[in-house]
User: What shape does this take?
Amino acid sequence: MVTSNLWGERWSKLVINAMANGISACTGLAGGEMIRNYALRRFATRVGSEAIRVGQALGYQLEEIHHLDPEIIAKAGEGDAEAAKLFDDRRLAEAGRLSGEQRPSMGQDMVKGRRTEIEFINGLIARKGDEVGIRTPANKTLTDIVKRVERGELDPDPRHLLEVRLD
Assistant: This one.
């Protein structure tokens, strides 16, 4: 695909990766399992919302994310009930098409004992957020937890994110 919006396209892809890779890495779950879990889906939505707001603050024109206007995801992560329902409906429909063991790449890295790219995905979002004055507690928390699992301080477990309090 040819685009005149390279940075908008790239940041949109970063948002998609941010919403799944680290969560799979620190929970040990496959993609469909993460999406079907309400609390993890809410956490992923918050991660995506923060990433979208940082990208917008950087001046990027974001493209569709999960076939939705990024503003829907941003508002869903900020607590808008109508936007959350739209996003949940989309994600749950996608989950039905995933095979049981389909796992995001960072989750695969963790299973294979390889270093993850957490610093280049959620860590980058957090650093850029600091630069533009956008709070990114979900991305910072996720980065920290993935690094702890990667170092062997924690075993992969959904509870790492189910017990997080961001506000």
The first helix runs from residue 6 to 18. DSSP finds ten helices and no strands in the chain.
